[in-house]
Design a protein that fits this description.
Radius of gyration of chain A: 24 Å
Number of helices of chain B: 15
Oligomer: heterodimer
Shape of chain B: globular
Largest sheet of chain A: none
Number of domains of chain B: 1
Distance between the termini of chain A: 16 Å
Largest sheet of chain B: 5 strands, parallel
Structural class of chain A: mainly alpha
Strand content of chain B: 5-15%
Largest interface: A-B, 20 and 19 residues
Amino acid sequence: MAFNSGKFLLFFPCAVIVYFILPKKLKSIWLLACSYCFYMAWNPIYILLLMFSTFVTYMSGIVLDKQVKSGVQAKYRKMTVAASVVINLGMLAYYKYTGFAFEILNRFLTGIIYTEPLMGGVVPDIVLPVGISFFTFQALSYTIDVYRGEVDAEHNILTYALFVSFFPQLVAGPIERSRNLLVQVRNIGKKRLWDYEGIIRGLMLMLWGFFMKVVIADRLSAITDPVFNDQAAYGASMRILAISCFAIQIYCDFAGYSTIAIGAARVMGLNLMENFNTPFLARNVKDFWNRWHISMSSWFRDYLYFPLGGSRCSKKRYYFNLFITFLASGLWHGAAAKYIVWGALNGILQIVNRIWQPYWKRLLSSLRIKENGPVKYLEMIISFITFTLTLIVFRANSLKLAVEYALHIFTRPDYRQFITERTYRALASDRDMIINLIAIFILLVVGVIRKNKGKMIDEYLTGKNYPVRVAVMMFLLFFILLFGQYGEDVYTQPFVYFQF
Amino acid sequence: MNIYVKRTSRVLIFIIIFSYLFVHFTYVFREPLSHTREHLMGFYSEKKNTVDVAVIGTSCTFSAIAPMQLWEDHGIAAYNFCTNVMLENTMRYAIREILKTQSPRLFIIDIAPFMNGYGIVDTMDEQTSGDVQVLRYNTDGLRLSKNRFDLINEVVLNRKKRLNYYFDLMFYHSNPEPELKNWNWNMPSAYKGYSNLQVDVMFPDTYEEIKTEPCTVSEGEMKILDELLNEIERHNAQVLFIVGPYWPVDDRKEAIGKAEYLKSYLTDRGYAFLDLHEHLDEIGMKGSEDYSMDYNHFTITGAVKNTRYLGDYISRNYDIPDRRNEEGYEKWHREYKEWNEKILPENIEWTKRVRQEYIDRQEEKSK
């Protein structure tokens, strides 16, 4: 059940209304039931995986708690954590990477170790359970947090199950931490959840999320998808347009989903962590990754990068840690060589950034250019272009095609033709382009407000008077209704990050 | 002000503004499907209780009756509440829709939908894009209302697809050519629901009457007809059923047989019935001039002749007032002027031109 489906638009109000009506004791159970129904709308059988992951991590928490109380040696506690990690990552690996592993083994080892490809070269057809990368990571973070003593083990399995499966963020994040969400889930029924301002702000966020997804992301996908699916038919200019649109599309798709999730949770009185903080206004790739998919980046930081040693080690080791972290993050995105290369590319960029930054600062200082002056816009543009170029690898249908795509851009320019013949009209009319530009401009305005005032759209509007709030919400609502991609016979895309 | 009252009123104001804008944006973005929307939009612009004769039917009907001719000849204020390919089921809802704002002294109901059998409702399930268009013809000319929702529930069998019909903005929002003039869905129209169609048929001026045995109508259609009659009786409405002045052609024996069966059924039930087909010579219909698409669609000349005959029949048999000298009908005078000085001559000219093009095409083919 995607957020932009008719089903969800019926499901969500029903879930919320009953949630507020029910007695305090039943609220958590109701939310858990809703969350499981939400997940089962995709493939009912995979609910067992969610339950299994929940059970394993719940039990690991209980065992760890007992081990701490009975003073068991640290190595046994480590074994408990390791068991939970192995089981969860094993499940993730089986469903996500088995096919990829077979492909790799057959490609590189056939003829060396095996005479015939494994299983006759047939790649096992395993359907990826939606959101598995998200909920296993969320469940694992709990085990590790209990082990580290950062959170108390949860003894009520229903409360814990709701933490793992809370439907707004279940299938595409934000990947929540027990320190934040579990603590709030424990308090459901203990404190007043009905909050008029919270509901209104939650609805505003949902509206903004829908705008990002249904208007911007889906409209832009009508430009990007045809180009990437038949790239040989398009020249350099269209490729540049397509990859630029894809950068905005994937941001609006994913940030849109996260914003709807945060808004939906807020309606129910729960606060989820922010997942995107105007990444396109970042001034370098380091800054960018602090603002992009924050819940995933911080997960890898806390549970991989820091344990590896972080930056408090030799430079070589520091760069190695950075590289490995980004490599893992690339692999997390998908079981394909292109994602690994994409992760590696980002790792390399991070290292280059760390090396380059002191020289850049020195250069600015010698030229007497203020760091926070207009040069920051140049930095933002460079940061955007850098990220966008890496996305060619991410979006192309294969690594080979990604290389061809990029080379074509640099070696066969056709900009004059693009301008004089307006070749983009093969994919989007002038009217569509104007609507897209208006929507992107609105995105930029909201981003600038977020960055300069430090407020998300809901918080910013709450400070305005009622007519202004109504006018803005009406504008967004009707922009979605009139220019969004929804309904039959209209090109729509599922949320991109569902596939991860 | 109490905080709860303040909050509730704010939410209510938001909902009211949203609903108002939603309804009107829906109209602005509705796609033009043939001339359907102009037909019904014009009806909504009529002042309350000013229409004395409401005509219900399909394209055969709106091309056969020119309400402004009734105004010219008899001062009858009539309106064609017709859509392309009107389904049998829709007729009942058309009566309800008309009665929301008008109290016609006479309903003229063309049985063409039953003859043509478009709306054997259990087959209309959006199987093809043609089916979608037929359903859209029937539903999208109506204003958003419960009556429209009820009609959709009856004719759109696939429940999952109904949302698209209830809120047609979902279907039309990508329409690249919104029309702001549709904002209130009540654009006045001097056509009064009349419309003509592409001319691509010519019959010889002499004809032989077809001998048909009365054939029966399906159980499903009879059920729909009985529901229509119940609706009429519920409103105690005065009704004249008609069959258009169709040209007797051999391959439509079945449809004509159906008409005969329905005629006998309705007259047995005590309803007035006028079979215009039986008066082709009195009307003066000419096969070579007065038919457009097929044997039961008409050119402007056919419509004028037919309407004159029908007007005489109505004024002889019903007590319909002459409104030409009454106050409150100034709009009708203006619209008649537009009809007489602009629309009628232009339509005659257009018909001549497209007929000549048709003849040229035929000659080209025969070479």
